[in-house]
Amino acid sequence: MIERIKNILKERGELTGPDAEFYRHEIEETRLMNQGMDYDTAHGAALDKYGVTEFDLYHPDVIESMPEWFGSPWFDYWGISH
Questions:
Q1: How far out from the chain centre does Cα 63 lie?
Q2: pTM tops 0.90, yes or no
């Protein structure tokens, strides 16, 4: 994901959609953990702050390229055949 983010920023200069959601989520999650919050709580708080679900954090291309990491709900959410 980090390489994907770097490449998108290099090519387009900005993140959009799930890529932006992933980046924003990770920044907030890290900020909260640096303040002493445990991972699970920080993860949930970051999702809540931006009003997204875990499904919103990964672009369909990422899901398709790593199907072993994502189950049927991810494919269904994005309308990807599997």
A1: 11
A2: no
